[in-house]
Design a protein that fits this description.
Keywords: Hydrolase
Strand order of the largest sheet: 1-2-4-3-5-6-7-8
InterPro entries: AB_hydrolase_3, AB_hydrolase_fold, GDXG_lipolytic_enzyme
GO molecular function, one term: hydrolase activity
CATH architecture: 3-Layer(aba) Sandwich
Protein name: Alpha/beta hydrolase
Pfam families: Abhydrolase_3
Distance between the termini: 22 Å
CATH superfamily: Alpha/Beta hydrolase fold, catalytic domain
Structural class: alpha/beta
Largest sheet: 8 strands, mixed
CATH class: Alpha Beta
Radius of gyration: 18 Å
Number of strands: 8
Number of helices: 10
Helix content: 25-40%
CATH topology: Rossmann fold
Length: about 325
């Protein structure tokens, strides 16, 4: 967490330098993870122009199979396909599922809803031309981490409102779901645990340009009045993450509306843990578990692209407080 905090911006003046640093650091963190993947760069249409994208294909992937469209985190102001090389390589290599990492225009240079508009445009394009990416129609999932998880959820919500293609599955890794919500985890871990909430959401904060839109369901998906009919969803949170409670509250909201949802809290971990999966054993064990959920969820083609039947409510499982030897074994297996 100390390493991450040293790389987090404390003001808008630092954004350009930190964007460059995060782009350079991603491939370094990825190391040799996924060295057997086929990796190809693409240009895809956004809402207002072309965007960068990168496809990660497992060597054993069939000519046509499932695909995860992944949006990077970074608080809507940082990140890109280079910064999230560790996450996407890891997911593709461990799940056997193709991953398409896509960029979007960043704030504050591009005002909301540019970020959502780009994410929705990218997903529509992939669904309209799945063969370009080796994707099988009806087997295209959407996912992301942090702000990218927010965008993935918003894309799934938009499919209900607009009647466009619905994701087959949604993967949300420590997602932002309620930009100005009041949750205990924000008070408990809002300083000293990667995200300093004042730095991000204060009057002069990094996402100040987004805050006037905090009630818009395209930004705060918790504020959407109707979530029934969303695709099956997996939500991962970290025990020491300021965004933990809003992610879990969103999971409960979906569950109450009959959505097939699985929530998993990794008690030991913090915001941003997915980026460190190739180099830190607890992070690696957690993201490997998430990759296996992706593998299982996308293993078979759904019979129909229709809303799921209501599921009974169940509490979100927590990571057991395993002894170090068990954690080491899990990491070695990963």
């Amino acid at each position: 967490m100390r390493l991450i905090r040293n790389q987090m911006p404390t003001g808008l003046a630092q954004l350009e330098r930190l964007r460059t640093d995060s782009g350079r650091g991603g491939p370094i963190l990825a190391g040799r993870e996924g060295r057997d993947l086929r990796i190809s760069d693409y240009t895809v249409p956004g809402a207002a122009g072309p965007l960068r994208a990168r496809l990660y294909e497992p060597a054993a992937a069939p000519a046509s199979g499932p695909l995860l469209v992944f949006f990077h985190g970074g608080g809507w102001v940082l990140g890109g396909i280079d910064s999230h090389e560790p996450v996407c390589r890891f997911l593709a290599a461990r799940s056997g599922v193709r991953v398409l990492s896509a960029e979007y225009r960043l704030a504050p240079e591009h005002a909301f809803p540019a970020q959502f508009d780009d994410a929705a445009a990218v997903f529509r394009h992939v669904c309209a031309d799945p063969s370009r990416f080796g994707a099988a129609p009806g087997r295209i999932a959407v996912g992301g981490d942090s702000a990218g998880g927010n965008l993935a959820a918003a894309v799934a919500h938009a499919s209900l409102r607009t009647g466009t293609a619905r994701p087959a599955w949604t993967l949300l890794i420590y997602p932002a779901t309620d930009v100005l919500g009041d949750y205990p985890s924000r008070a408990a871990y809002g300083k000293g645990f990667v995200i300093d909430t004042d730095t991000w959401t204060g009057p002069e904060g990094l996402i100040a340009s987004l805050l006037p839109h905090a009630d818009d369901p395209r930004l705060s998906v918790m504020r959407d009045p109707d979530v029934a009919g969303l695709p099956p969803t997996y939500i991962a949170t970290g025990g020491f993450d300021p965004l933990r409670d809003e992610g879990e509250a969103y999971a409960e909201r979906l569950r109450e509306s009959g959505v097939d949802v699985k929530a998993r809290r990794f008690d030991r971990l913090f915001h941003g843990f997915a980026s460190f999966a190739p180099v830190e054993r607890h992070c690696g064990a957690a993201l490997d578990e998430i990759a296996q959920e992706l593998r299982t969820a996308m293993a078979t083609e759904p019979a129909q692209n229709a809303p799921q039947e209501p599921q009974p409510a169940e509490p979100a499982p927590h990571e057991p407080a395993a002894p170090e030897s068990a954690a080491d074994a899990a990491a070695e297996q990963a």
